[in-house]
Amino acid sequence: MPKQSLPPIAGYEAEILALVQQANPAVLTHSNRKPEQFQSAFACALHMHQPTIPAGANGELISHLQYMLEHSEEGDNHNAEPFAHCYKRLADIIPQLIEEGCNPRIMLDYSGNLLWGVEQMGRVDILEALKRLACDPTLQPHVEWLGTFWSHAVAPSTPIPDLKLQILAWQHQFAAMFGRQALQRVKGFSPPEMHLPNHPDTLYELVKALRDCGYRWLLVQENSVENFDGSCLRHAQKYGPNQLVARNSRGETVSIVALIKTQGSDTKLVGQMQPYHEALGLGRQSLAGKSIPSLVSQIADGENGGVMMNEFPAAFIQAHRTIASQVDPVSTVALNGTEYLELLEAAGVEASDYPKIQAIQQHKLWHNTDSPINPESIEAAISDLKETDHSFSMDGASWTNNLSWIKGYENVLEPINSLSAKFHQRFDPLVTKHPAITHTPHYQEALLYLLLLETSCFRYWGQGTWTDYANEIHRRGEAMIEAANQALR
Fold it and tell me: 402: which of 93, 271, 353, 486 lies 20 to 30 Å off by Cα?
């Protein structure tokens, strides 16, 4: 098995959890916006990801971006360098706009795989650009980083015990690269593929893990949530904050603020600055008796497709120049997610005032569950609904419902569940007794392969090369756990 350095994904759990739980205004002290001065706003996020694959020399783990560069003759791999440019170009665009007198905003979501891969490749140009975007005080009012799962796992089909591991691994990676103060500013979470679990226990544990790890809000796709009566979100709800409530099979509840990503997956939405143009047609709305600006929230791949590679920079620059050229009062502005929520809070709007929503299909579930609420009654209701209602599913929902992350992928999902069970059987008792075990290579190597196996790409691209990658990662993960078993006896 190839020897290589490990990414910083574990070892400082207690320190990180203590850090991110410290109360601090992440944005408002730097914001130059006042909510009473505009009618509407738009918040754009860019998602960046490259998976880690066992395709280097002698089977080393490498970034898929590196593979693209080394195999430019295959498929669309000629786009490797344009992709690399996309990962760093905001470090030029944002300062340029500020120098011109504009007031730009952007949210950034980079997977842990990608951040590690950039380091592995020694791409100092990208690393320096990202460090500027994460650490430069002059850019902090304009750039917000969003947390995510380290290896771009999709939450509904990730084993529940691994949800927090994925979240913490990303926080380790981000803090190692950009410092703990930068991590402390990360308050929003971007779920890979906008995939939100709707099984009560999975959603509950996800939201609980997010809250435990210091996150204040997450971005959700509009068709992945519903009102408590099962209805779709009202028009105004899509353009303001909501309170996502998660209730598990034991009747326990936990909640987190949700900003709504409208419409489906289409890079043209951000690439051609549709959120800005949509926000122009929106006005203020009433929430808890107070007038608040409406917010259009959108996310798109930051590098994928011709529109994002070629059209986005000009459209982004033009939108902000247009806003800057307007005479006061400016009716529509750019905001970031945490900034919007903190502005509302400063205006006296509390999170408890937000409309309460739940994951899609949960109204049906709760309506058909017999009392008392317990795991047995929940599973009975799920089983009955699956038999009687062909539209019912507990697979969650994402940016598109024409793609399943479960059906036809038993040859990946079964190894994920098996490796996860073996990992936790081996290490959980040790971590409980000796938390420092997470510093050890045995733990970190096994954790790395577990996280990697859960990468969505090994299912998104169908059977073949990508599922073969998953099988090899599973084989190595089992070998790592067996080696740990032998060493730790």
Answer: 271
